[in-house]
Write a structure and sequence with these properties.
Blueprint: H1 2-13, H2 22-31, E1 35-39, E2 42-47, E3 50-56, H3 66-79, H4 81-88
Antiparallel strand pairs: 1-2, 2-3
Helix pairs in contact: 1-2
Amino acid sequence: MARLCETLSRVMGGTSDANVRFAHLRALLKALRFAERITGSHHVFGRDGVAEIINLQPDKSGRAKRYQVKQVRRVLAKYGLDKELRDED
């Protein structure tokens, strides 16, 4: 749970978008009850009640791409999902 909270803080903080590991971002979305569908290197996430689809691809170093971290931040903030994980602590 500590790693998820750390990843959530990094994503929502917006100061280290280039340093978020793809595996950690993926785990965060799964913990927030997003369903994952994998097609090749694309990981597509969706959730009931969330209109946006999140499409992630790792870069060559195993990190999430900056613009995709920003996309996740916007979706989490828009729907208040960042508070969901914090409320579980």
